[in-house]
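Human: Here is a favour to ask of a fellow structure person. Comparing notes only helps if you start from a blank page. Give me a protein, with the fold worked out from its sequence. Please set it down just below, with no commentary around it:

Assistant:
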Amino acid sequence: MKKTIVTIVIILAAIGATFTVASCKLIGTGKVGVQYSYKGGVKDETLNPGLNFINPFLKVKEFTVGNEQLILTKDKREGSKENESFKVATADDASISVSFQMSYRYNPEKVVNTYKKFKGMDGEDIVEQRVRTVLKSKISEITTDYSMMDIYSGNRSEINNKITNYLNKEFGSAYGIEVLDASIIDVHPDKKLKEAIDNRVNALQQKQQAEAEQEKIKVEAETKLIEAENEASVNIAKAKGEAEANKIKSASITDELIRMKEAEARKKHGWVTVRGADTVVTKDE
């Protein structure tokens, strides 16, 4: 009898231990758990990071609510395979290969609805099977507003800001994902495209040089014009000064001055005649 009781206790303890283990679910840091069952559906309450005790008959899918990165680059980096760069379209009907990275997280308030929408898929599944498949076309919807040169050597921060805002809006609505930052981090033109870019760069440099030369010529011409105007102003002022001096001089030669000059000349040279304002003195023989 005693052996039977011991056996039952051991069996019950084993069942209890199994039940306890099955009731424990450890949720990783930066994640939440969505609880569901095949009969009861999805529970509205999510599990927080750490050890959680749950109904052992429930299943759990984890979603990242901490910051994660999706990296698609030409060279092998953390999170990227050997070559996951991809081509985007441009405003000048070209396509250019880029490396890309995106920081994101699932909105904790939307993960339940996200799971209901994508039944059987956790956060990683959605990123791998859904986000990746539309990512390139979504980015191209922004890059088609920019030329190849804009993307290659233009204001990359402006383009990246627009990509971030657009993906945040699109992925937030479709997948409950918040896009914190999305960036084209490198551009990889092929040989033909590199030659075209180099030609455009050279043409741009030549244009800038020509504009600089034209500006120089313009400045020189304006300088010469200013110098000529200044010289003309000086000459006009000089002429005005001389005219004013002559006017004053003429005004100063009066009849009394003429008679005085005649008297002084007669006294010194004999009979003389002083003619007019030019004071031409002649001696009478």
